[in-house]
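Incident log, entry 3
Record: Gluconate transporter (442 residues)
Problem: checksum mismatch between cached and fresh output.
Input:
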Amino acid sequence: MASLIILLAVLALVGLISWAKVNAFLAFLLVSLGAGLALHIAPAALLAAMYQGLGDTLGSVTIIIVLGAMLGKIVADSGAAQQITSALVDAFGPRYLLWTLMLSGLLIGIPLFYNVGFVLVVPLIFAAATRYRLPAVYVGLPMLAALSVLHGFLPPHPSPTALVAQFHASLGRTFVYGLVLAIPAVILAGPVYARTLRGLVAVPLAGFVAPPLPASALPGRLNSFLSSLLPVLLLGGALLLKALLPTSSALAPLLTLLAEPAVTLLLSVAVATCSLGLARGQRMSQLMDSYGLAVKDVAAILLVIGGAGMLKQVLVASGASQEIAASLRGTGLPPLVLGWLLAAFIRVCLGSATIAGLTAAGVMLPTLSQGHVNPNLMVLAIGAGSLVLSHVNDSGFWMFKEYFNLSIKDTLRSWTAMETIVAVVGLAGVLVLDWLLPLLHL
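Fresh output:
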């Protein structure tokens, strides 16, 4: 019964937004209330779940998205994004633009959480699309595919890190195996699939598209790279030092602070304000006005993400996710395939990749202890399944849709299809490794 209610809730959400043209935040409110009552949640508990979902979701992403939007705005307006794109293309040539952006996404995505990486690379994508007069989705999908794969497969991202701990897997081996799987997944979901979307027309948010500047007006290349990629450098450096230094080190508290994405982005915005703004003759009032415009651009995105969080929490509070997972345990499927399916099913129902992964892990843990299953591969199988079929109940879906200003249909065709390719290739890679590793005695 719970599965049917969740299915009807998702269909209602799609119908309200796509056909009735109801504002997405209002649609989430209506569907969350309806689904909660249908799942027999008491009214007081239902409202508490909605408030919790809204608060928890926005609490974890608001600072990151707002600061990322400010950094993206100054990176775009100053010409730093244009300078970075020029440098990369000069190094590899415009013929390999998609592959260059894919590689950039892989490098940026290793230390950065997905939301941070997304708002950081969007100005680079739009700058490249504008300069070479190419469709924004065609240019951007390879880079965003790289970020998504790393979010689902590799520590230190939240879900894989938590799964490594639950399954007592090896962080190092999981990282190496995940990187091996990430390469074919990103290639197929990024540059290869993007070629089928070359005719997809999108008009990105104006706040993230700066008109091309003459070369003489651009900041220096070193300044552009350091100011724009400072979050990557700070966060990556902090994580590396935390891994190398003992926990009793006097630097440990400072490194813990620097490893927090919100702090890293705040420092980066402060540096960029000086290096890309004040140092180039702009007044502080001009920069603050520009930042205000950036916040206006992402306000609607934040509301939609909060709405998705409300619906997710209502379904979690009802116990529907546990009920669905328990009903699939007696299927007799191979454990790695079952883990992928469980994560995929919960992901489709609830939207959150992290919750899908953690819920599937709780179900699969007893199975893992009873059989000869590689725990590192189970982490990756569940991580891959948790990315499948991102749709209207996933905040990542709405970030992509709103930033690129796409219709629901085109977002499903581009973003949802890309995520699904990643998930399927990930499962195929896990099964190949499961067959190959014993032969190699690894």
